[in-house]
Structures are given as structure tokens and as C-alpha cells.
Design goal:
homotetramer, mainly alpha, Arc Repressor Mutant, subunit A, Tetracycline Repressor, domain 2, 2 domains, about 70% helix, about 0% strand, DNA-binding
Amino acid sequence: MPTVTARRPSRAQASADKRELILRAAITQFARRGFFQAQVADVAREAGVAAGTVYLYFENKDDLLISIFEQTMRDAIDEARRALEGVADPVERLRRLARVHLGRLGQDRDLAVVFQVELRQSTKFMERFSSTLLQDYLQAIGEAIAEAQTAGLFRREVSPSLAAKMLYGALDEMATNWILSRRRYRLAAQADEVVDLFVHGMKR
Amino acid sequence: MPTVTARRPSRAQASADKRELILRAAITQFARRGFFQAQVADVAREAGVAAGTVYLYFENKDDLLISIFEQTMRDAIDEARRALEGVADPVERLRRLARVHLGRLGQDRDLAVVFQVELRQSTKFMERFSSTLLQDYLQAIGEAIAEAQTAGLFRREVSPSLAAKMLYGALDEMATNWILSRRRYRLAAQADEVVDLFVHGMKR
Amino acid sequence: MPTVTARRPSRAQASADKRELILRAAITQFARRGFFQAQVADVAREAGVAAGTVYLYFENKDDLLISIFEQTMRDAIDEARRALEGVADPVERLRRLARVHLGRLGQDRDLAVVFQVELRQSTKFMERFSSTLLQDYLQAIGEAIAEAQTAGLFRREVSPSLAAKMLYGALDEMATNWILSRRRYRLAAQADEVVDLFVHGMKR
Amino acid sequence: MPTVTARRPSRAQASADKRELILRAAITQFARRGFFQAQVADVAREAGVAAGTVYLYFENKDDLLISIFEQTMRDAIDEARRALEGVADPVERLRRLARVHLGRLGQDRDLAVVFQVELRQSTKFMERFSSTLLQDYLQAIGEAIAEAQTAGLFRREVSPSLAAKMLYGALDEMATNWILSRRRYRLAAQADEVVDLFVHGMKR
DNA sequence: TATGAATGAGCCTTCATTCAT
DNA sequence: AATGAATGAAGGCTCATTCAT
């Protein structure tokens, strides 16, 4: 067999591409119609494949939603890791996390809708999410806060975990507001504002 | 003939009671199974009525969800109005709003689940919600913030509307976290902490 | 007890009146919506009584339809009997029957709709109808025809029963056409035309 | 490779066949139980397919009834057109129309029941029917009659449209009678008798 | 007699999933 | 690997009928 040229993608690559294609279609459809309202057939049509084909790449409809979540989180975590590399200042770490968070969602409105709305449908799913990745995220924030406290930058009397939830909640709300707002503005731009407010508080 | 006692409830009262009963059952079932997974028959069974009876009091399944929202909001708004009566200090106003917000949800876990999870299923519903009542709420917060700025209590360079979203986001996140957490703690207790943090920020 | 005056109708009369009222409402509703589409509640509302009241006067929904039929037929037969009294000429008898037939239906469009359309819904009902009253009617026509044949007025080679069906079919078609036509014309006026054409066809 | 034989039906053919199969089953079931009493599941069972399959070929239950009507009318019109080809004599044209009319219904009792009984359920449907195809049919009859009048074969004083309705009514009645009668006789045989009687009646 | 709230059986329709081709 | 026709379980909703008042 001759060497595989770059022109013809390998079989594994072709398969991964189609998987990607379907996942992308699912994001679009779930965002447009909502998870329960969107039919598997809608996703297949959007992807330009037959309904049955979806089941060659995904277990079932739920698996589509879960895969969207996992795939996106994997990518986001990678990006966050790179963004934090070599950054020692805890406040700057918070700022970078916030930028990745809002930057990613702000880049892809459909994805943002799926994350802010569709993924929160079932307590079952949310429990699953919140017991792992969300906890990791909150922990990362919490650690930066604790560090800042240790470094004497932040007040010590505030619980780091409560403060972490608060920062996360604020960022999350920005994302949800951006989706629902009719105005078109850059979501990412709010990352710094939120972190600033978080750091300084409202007091003069 | 002596005055008719209140013993026997009027027909209108009985009807309102049954409506209330079904709504309560819907909250329980939607919280337990999720809106799409819960069947109208489940709600009816929970309420101890026949399935058809639900349709005497509500248009359809969607109407149940919408009614839960509207009924709860009406009550909450009433309570908030009473809580703010005669309170001039803007920071105290924020504190009272936060207490009502978390106090109500913390009192009724099922209701909190419906509000934090089930009501956010569809962009359609969220748009409806966010375009009216949520805006009112954010406005009320924003006004208190602006007042505090005018009074020289808060920094002037922060946008009141952004700050309002941030405070709301933080409270909302507390509620969601409370639902999803396995630990049992008093949600209402976090209202003051959140407001304190919001007001002071993290800076020393 | 004082003599019952004519002012206050007897109890039996009042009951008969309400029965009549409901039956009339049923005719209107069945004509407007069709038997299966019309709900018992519609009939009750039209009659100005509660839904349950219908069941004090009629067995069930089917009974409404059957009662309309029977009541109307009873009246029609009475009228026909009076119209034929002392009329010896068989052709004139046919003419009178046709006039009663189209005259009655032409007087009450809703009733005509129920008769021409709604009553023919189920083979079950039609079989019941056709095996008794329709047969009587066809027989009455057939007898007049046979008489006319005996009297040498009509051709003998035509089967009286076939000819009877044909005349009935023609009258029935006039009624159906009248209902469905947008034009408003006097149905009764066609009785003579149909009979003329028929008689001419049967003439020796 | 040898020529593909017709053994394996094309996909389009298979689809058309299944549609036909379901339509046939609907005719049987509607005739046996009546349109409103027959369930879609009954039709599916009769056709040997799953209930959901019906909805791959038809919009909904109503569409089944409408499709029976349209399909049958299309076929009947084709046959009638062929039967009238090259026939100039107006009386013979009437005779041929009558033969097609009763011949078709007499060949398929279930179909006849659907046409004579079930399709007449709703004024809505009847209006739709009577405003188009029935009018065409009456027109075709009426034209033959008018021609016969012009040719001096029929009396001129009778309105062709009234006479057409009469002939149609007579044929229609024969069909209805045939369905409801317990006796088994050849419906088609009555076509000539009816036309003879009609023609005799119209003769100058 | 009359009411009308309550019942619950019944049915149309949807759609995730399968599987023969 | 891909297709898409077929499946059939499931569920929202209707409405004839009942019955406590």
C-alpha cells in the first residue's frame, strides 16, 4: 500500500469529521429549537446525513447533549490551562479564567445557548455536571482567591468557596443575559469589568 | 336565621383551592422528574384528582409551568414591596431584596428546583420571562445601586446595570448551588454574605 | 288546592317543553357542527341548560339523534296522512307526498341538514331507518304507482318498487342539493316539477 | 450484467403499493365501522403495518378519507372519459355514464359504503365535494340532456340542470339502496333501467 | 328537577430507535 | 458505513357521562 497522502484523510479522520459534523448540527438545532423540541431527524437533516447515521456515532439523543458538553469542556479546559501557564498573580489568574469563560461563549452564540439554557434542563444532568467539572472550575477560582488572601491582597474574612460561587454566578449571568438580549455586544468585554467589580466591590 | 359561618367554603374558594392543589402537585412533580419527563397524569395523581380535572383549571401542560411562574412571582413581588416599604437606605434595600429572593427559594426546595432548572428549558420561555419581570427586578437593583452612587456610598465608575446583573447572577448561582448540593444548609443565610461581598468587594 | 289555571303549565307540559327545547338545540348544533363534532355540552349551552340536564331527558348522545328522527318522522307522517285523506287519484297522491316531503325540509334548513347529512353517518343507523320507515314510505309511493298502472295511467312494464325508489331518490337529491347550494330558493317548488317529470316518464 | 428484471419492485413502486395497501384497509375499516368509530390503529392492523406507518403516507385520519375520495374519483373520471370516447348520441352518453357510476360502486361494496355513507358525514366535506367534482358530473349529464333537447329527442320545457339532478339523484339512490338492502343483486343492472325510465320521461 | 365539577377511558399523533438493504 | 422506511410505546388531550349538592 502506498503512503497515505495528506490529500485523502485517513479513515479515522473521516469518521471523526463526521462525528464533528453531527455534533455541530446538534448544537445548531438544540439552540434553535431546544433539546426536547429538536428531533434527531432535525439534527440529521442539518448535518446532511440520514437519521440512522446519527446512531453510528452516538448512543442516543442524550448522548448528543452530553457529548456537546464534554467536547466543549475539554477544549475550554485546554485553553484555560494554556492561558494560566506561568501566571503567578492570583488576580491575573482570575482575570484570565473569566476571559476564557466569556470569550468562548461569546464566540459561538448557538453553543452559548446550549450551555446556558439547554444543558440545564434536567436536574439529573445538572447534578452530573455540577458534581465534577463545575466543582473543578469553582475550585480553581477558589484557590486563586485563597492565594490572594494569603498574599494579603484579598480580605481574609470572606469564604473563598462562597466568593468563587459568586464570581462564577456573575459570569454565568453575563452569558445568559447576552443570549437573551436583543442588543449585540461583545460578551468577552465584560470579563474584565466583572473581575474588577469582584475585586474592588462597590465601596468607595 | 343566624349569620352564615365560614365553615362551608364558597364555590369560588373551593375552585381556587383545587387550582392551588394542582399547582402544588405540578411543582412537586416537575421538580422531581423534570417538566418534559413529568406526565400530566403524574401531576393529577399527585394532586389526587383525575387527569381530566387538570384541564378544567389549566389550558395545557405548558400553562402549568407558566402558572407556577406567574403565581410565584406575584407573591414574591408582593413580599418584596412590603419588605422595601419605608426603607430609604439603598444598601439596606439591596439587602432586603436579596433576603426575599433567597428566603423564598430556600423555604421551598421543589419550587426552587422548578425556578432554577425547569423554567430555563426553552429560550422561548426565558425570553418571555427575561423581557419583563427579570428586567423589572434588575431595574430595582440597578436603581438602588445608582442611588448609592449618588449618595456617595458606591463608586461612580461602575455601570449600575452591569453591577445589578452581577448581584443577581451571584444570588441566582447561590440558589442553583443550594439545589444541587447534597449538603443541607440555610440558603437565606447567604443573602447577607453575598450583599456584603458585593458591597465591599474582595479588596482589603 | 285551587284549580290549575292555564297560565301555569302542567308539570308534564313543562317537561315536554324542555325536552323539545333540547331537541331543537340538538338540531341546530348537529346541523352546524355535525353529529360527531358537536358536543353534548354545545347542545346544552344552545338550549340554555346544564350539561347534566340533557341526560334527564335523553339516554345518551345517540338518543338525541334518534329522537330527532323519530319525532320528525311522526309529525311528517301525520301531515302526510292528512294530506292524502280522501284523495283517490294516485298521481295526485304522489304529488301530495312529494309536497309534504320537500315542504317540510324546505321549511327548516337545520332539520334538513340533520336529515340529509348527519343521519346518514352510520350504516347502523341507516339500516335501522331503511328497514322500517323508509320502506313504509317507498311502499306508499309504490302502491300509488301500482294503482296508476292498474288504472291504465302508467306503463305496466316498469317495476313499481324500482320506480318508487327512483322518485324517492330524485326528491332526496333535491333536498341534498338545496342544502348544499349557495343559492336560496324554495325547495318545495321543486316537488311538482319532479313529479311532473316522473309522471311523464311513467305515462303510457 | 443482464437486464434488470421487473422482479424486484422499484422503491417508488413499493412506496406506492404500501400507500395503496393502507388506503384499501381504510376503505374496509371505514365501511365496516364508520369513519369516526374506526381507529387509525384499526386501519393499520387491517393493512398489516404499524400505526405510525400510516402517518408516513397520510397527513392524518381525515387525509385518509379525502384520499379515498380523490383516488377513486380520479380513476372513475378516467374510466368515464374512455367510455364516452367517440360516442356522439347523447342518450347513449347518459347510459354510459350511468353504467360507469353504478358499475364501479357495484364492484366494490366497501367503497360504495364509504362513498354513499361515510363521505357524507360533514357538511364541510360535502361542500368541498359538491362544489367541484359533483358539479362537473352534473354538468356532463346536463350537457347530454341539452344536446338531446336540441336534437329534438327530449322535451324542451324541462330544465336540463333540474333533470340532471334528478337522474343523478336516482342513480345515487340506487347505490344507497343497494348498500342497505339485505338482498344481493347486481347494482350495475339498474343503470339501464334508470336511464330508460328517465329517457322515457324526457321523450317528446 | 337542575346543576356543573369531576371523572377516566379512549384515541390520535409523535418520534427515538432499529434494521434490512 | 450509510440509508431511511418501519416500528410501537408513550402521552397529551377530549368529552360523554355521572353524581353530590
